[in-house]
Amino acid sequence: MPPDALRAFVQRLFVGVGMRGADAVTMAELLVATDLRGVVSHGTWRLGGYVRMMLEDKVNPQPDIQVVSSRGAVRVYDGDGGMGHLPSNEAARFVATAAAEQGLAAATTGNHYHFGAAGKYSRIAAAEGCIGIAVSSHRWQRQGMILDAANAGSPMSIAFPARDQPPLVLDMAARFVDWSEEDFERMPFLFFKQLGLGAVTHVLGGILTGIWNADRIPPASQWESTQGGFFAAFAVDAFMDEEEFLTQMDRFVRECRAADPFPGHTEAELPGNIEARMEVDYARDGIPISDTHREVLETAATAVGVESPLAEYDDTRFEGTS
Length: 322
What we know:
Elements: H1 3-16, H2 21-36, H3 47-55, E1 66-71, E2 74-78, H4 85-102, E3 104-112, H5 119-126, E4 130-138, H6 145-151, E5 155-160, E6 168-173, H7 181-186, H8 188-207, E7 227-235, H9 242-257, H10 273-285, H11 291-304
Parallel strand pairs: 2-3
Antiparallel strand pairs: 1-2, 3-7, 4-5, 4-7, 5-6
Helix pairs in contact: 1-2, 3-11, 4-5, 6-8
């Protein structure tokens, strides 16, 4: 499906569920940008859950996002029980702009729902000549704080700009292995490192953002505001000449991509390289949508009363894409 057509469809879905036009545009842009990079799990495939939460009055479709605290190049955003993408996008753009002017900046967001893939926020800073960081955490209603931190499922991303090579973008969940007593006996360091990453993301994206404050357990409002986000940006030219940095980044990425690939793989790539290539390919050829993904989108369209255009783009070029 062409990206523009998918954006228009997603925008209509969010307007249909009660979002303001400008917020619907933002949500469509962010989710389709995620699809373009091949991060299927956190793009428009999530629409089914998002639409259902708003229809069930668990997520505020028209949040009044506010800056509740500001000191220098630091801000705290309140998401008013809405989708986390909206305050997170504002926070990420603020830190990128402020860091470009002042050298560094940081912000937190709280009192909101899911914020999607972390990489789309760190990339905002990288596009402005900064190093960007985005981290989130969530509060499980049925578990305690320690279990949530140990779960290590929260996302984290760090993005570095480059010139001619694709940017280096680490974008992942802090958890990378499921619990197995046998695996723990063979490789305990994996689980300890995972626990460490999970605890750090939980503090930055959770405790620091106030999701565990007494007045938010349960939330004071009707909204399912269980997530928070931490965003930071560092201007490269505050540390060294930006052109020299970009030259060195290009050399580093190029040499890594020229290395011998891991066994069973045909190419060597750094984090973010494959996503950059997909972004070019999918923008040209269209975003592949699996049968399961299509069912999610069409079910959401039916629930909102919006006509789905997906049948217009039936194509077998991407058969087997999941």
